[in-house]
Specification:
globular; alpha/beta; 7-stranded mixed β-sheet; 249 residues; 26% strand
Length: 249
């Protein structure tokens, strides 16, 4: 992404809402902006930039902010956790608190293709995980539908959609053939997936009850180091500009 956090043409935003807060990187990029890190749980115990403020928030219930108050609202890998039937209401709430011509920026997962060269443990964990999400009524490929959700909201004058198809592997020859940007993004997603398996699955009763055992987890981590293993994950980037409010004379 050429060193940028988003494809959206942001011009010195002064107030940013990060829903499902991440690392606080946007606060470093825009040090003069007030950044609200909103999440359903408190932020982790780690240093954050001084212009970041935490706000408890459940997007499925309400967004406790003043109308037309944010230049940017950002969501990364949050829609993935929302029931599809609730997403239109969430987008409407967000459009209400965006300033006219403000930007809504969303990135989320699309399809997962696994087992290009045979990866039995990867396939097993993927089947367990996607099955668990589907039983909860969640869409494991929600990124593919983001553009349609934004179009249906009828609140944006400009909607942009870009798909990034990443092949995750440790194969040095393959990684040398792709662009530095593609390589960095794929390695970041691969590293994050490993952290999820290493940490979150230790405490996830859902995954344990679905059949993930310590032996399966160990085998998955070993398999992920195999250079011949290649899996594909799509990430969809969307950035939409809120319509300019008409002035009635």
């Amino acid at each position: 992404m050429n060193g940028e956090l988003t494809f959206a043409p942001l011009d010195n935003p002064l107030k940013i809402l990060d829903l499902g807060a991440g690392s606080g990187a946007c606060a470093n990029i825009y040090p003069h902006a007030e950044v609200i890190a909103a999440d359903i749980v408190p932020l982790p115990e780690r240093p954050f930039p001084p212009n970041v403020k935490y706000q408890h928030c459940d997007v499925l219930v309400t967004l406790p902010f003043v109308d037309s108050s944010f230049d940017v609202v950002h969501m990364r890998l949050l829609m993935y956790h929302l029931p599809p039937a609730e997403i239109p209401s969430v987008i409407q709430r967000i459009s209400r608190i965006l300033k006219p011509q403000g930007w809504l920026i969303i990135e989320d997962f699309g399809r997962h293709i696994i087992g290009h060269t045979g990866s039995p443990v990867q396939e097993k964990i993927e089947a367990i995980y996607t099955g668990m999400l589907q039983r909860k009524g969640l869409d494991t490929k929600v990124g593919e539908s983001l553009g349609a959700f934004l179009q249906d909201a009828d609140a944006f004058s400009e909607i942009n959609v870009k798909k990034a198809e990443m092949i995750l592997t440790t194969d040095p020859e393959f990684l040398a053939r792709i662009s530095p940007g593609e390589r960095a993004l794929a390695n970041a997603v691969r590293s994050t997936s490993i952290k999820v398996v290493e940490t979150l699955m230790n405490i996830s009763e859902d995954m344990r009850s679905a059949g993930v055992t310590p032996d399966i987890k160990k085998a998955w981590l070993e398999e992920r180091q195999e250079p011949k293993l290649k899996t594909t994950t799509d990430i969809w980037f969307t950035w939409a500009q809120k319509r300019q409010t008409s002035i009635v004379l």
